[in-house]
What does this fold into?
Amino acid sequence: MKKLISDLRVTENVALHDRYVLLKAAPADGTPLPEMLPGQFAELRVDGSPTTFLRRPISINYVDRAANEVWFLIQLVGDGTRQLATLRQGDTLNVVYPLGNGFSLPSGDERLLLVGGGVGTAPLLYLGSMLHEKEYAPHFLLGARSAGDVLQAEAFRRFGTVDITTEDGSAGERGYVTQHSLLQKEHFDRIYTCGPKPMMVAVARYARANGIACEVSLENTMACGVGACLCCVENTRDGHVCVCKEGPVFNIEKLLWQI
Amino acid sequence: MADLRVNIGRLSLKNPVMTASGTFGYGVEFADFIDLSRLGGIIVKGTTLKAREGNPYPRMAETPSGMLNAVGLQNKGVDYFVEHIYPEIKDIDTHIIVNVSGASLDDYAETARRLSPLEKIPAIELNISCPNVKEGGMAFGTSCRSAASVVKAVRAVYGGTLIVKLSPNVTDIAEIARAVEAEGADAVSLINTLLGMAVDAERRRPVLFTVTGGLSGACVKPVALRMVWQVFHAVKIPIVGLGGIMNATDAVEFLLAGARAVEIGTANFIDPQVSVKVIDGIAAYLDRQGCRSVEEIIGGLQV
Ligand SMILES: Cc1cc2nc3c(=O)[nH]c(=O)nc-3n(C[C@H](O)[C@H](O)[C@H](O)COP(=O)(O)OP(=O)(O)OC[C@H]3O[C@@H](n4cnc5c(N)ncnc54)[C@H](O)[C@@H]3O)c2cc1C
Ligand SMILES: Cc1cc2nc3c(=O)[nH]c(=O)nc-3n(C[C@H](O)[C@H](O)[C@H](O)COP(=O)(O)O)c2cc1C
Ligand code: FES
It folds into this structure.
């Protein structure tokens, strides 16, 4: 899949609660967006932040083909993401994309569970939309610290069933995603997950224990995003591999996690 | 348009812009973004005799106007390069130069020897910033004696163009440059990364697994320029300048300070098309200055 460097024009900046923004953007020159796989990401250039030197990796949150818009869901954690959050309609956003491998899509009649934690839900919306398009009925389990961190629940409902857990019980069931009653009640054939590492490890452990195929989307420190600098490796059964190129999505059977 | 061709010893480059080792993979990673054949050369990843897994996570830390890396020379070894990677890249229409590293003199010499039959690899770049295992882990490039001994060992078995990449982590880089020139290096390139460190105050821990790492990017440019200038006055062999080049103006500064060619490193991460923009920018600069050839500005700093 050909990678591009391209100027996008921000079409909308939606503040979600106080610590997240949803940036929607379209190619500035009006060309159609490239093909992108769910799970892939973009490297966003951050202009105007004196402390931000490198690009920031951000997942493809959703692709609205009709509007020719790509969405990025961004949590404000440091200077780079805070600067991105100041972009307004009409501003330019330079991206290198699409990067990485993406989730593998199911074949045949499978029951699918998509588990996201915090801003890790970002790539699951696009994945959910593709699964929905392929006539699957995915089940989403979204975990967050509290109600204010549950993101895009309405958007997820368009593509499948949504369950929520919060650590303080302010929305959905109280606790962690792996404690949700859904996991006792229903059987799934395949799990996709993205979120904080402890959460993904717990999900991977559940999947392994129940013989369920499972893919996780990893984060790492990135510089180039294209497999050239080797700054982003995960130790796997095949040795050190680049998360930006061989990942960010990995089958748990390939990882050396203690699960 | 001005003539951009330059020679590094017997090696003639179509223009003075190459990409730096460890920042451009094997070139193919950037083929979607630029026409690789426009480059003066591609210096591929550090290659060692045996495969190396490199350092554990985290390997990278962003710093003001730069970054630290502690990749640890991850590569699959010279034989894998010769059998699997070389066939994939040998037809790129530019010079492919292999960056060679080692922990002993024998490692360096044997790696160079195995690369020498490859027709499309006209040159190697010796990275002498690696720790010399036999001499207690001090980098080869930090003493004149050990720097000279590596060059001598490699020169004895390697007939192609030999570029020696100098470490900036020394008191007097000019002295090291003279030592490698005396042993038959065809050129020197400088600088490699500056040893640095980053601390996570909240966690009271170093950011990098290895505690220290190599600093690169815009922040190192003043140091790199100074060193190119010093080495220019110390040796007769050509100098390849690098360290913090982010655009064509930066590149021209290195040429004026005495570099005959430049390498673009960390800047590739921020703009994967920067290398060709630098080529075009140098040409535009020469036209604007009324120069017919890039030769006219090399070492042309007026002081
Ligand atoms: C493949 C990939 C996809 C991603 N997708 C998204 C996404 O869709 N939405 C989103 O909001 N974020 C995403 N991230 C994380 C995002 O890249 C970082 O949060 C961002 O780079 C932080 O930049 P900053 O300048 O705001 O913070 P910095 O100033 O760089 O860092 C602020 C704090 O956050 C920590 N931090 C920085 N980067 C990371 C990281 N990668 N993982 C964990 N902690 C980090 C730092 O240690 C520091 O404590 C993704 C990361 C990867 C690797
Ligand atoms: C991620 C990374 C990996 C590198 N790997 C090598 C290497 O294998 N061999 C080498 O000689 N230099 C290596 N370098 C150093 C660069 O080639 C270059 O000397 C240095 O980064 C300074 O130039 P810059 O500021 O333009 O990046 C590496 C640099 C980076 C950032
Ligand atoms: S970020 Fe450079 S190899 Fe992954």
Observations:
- Chain B has one domain: 6-297.
- Chain B has a mean pLDDT of 96.
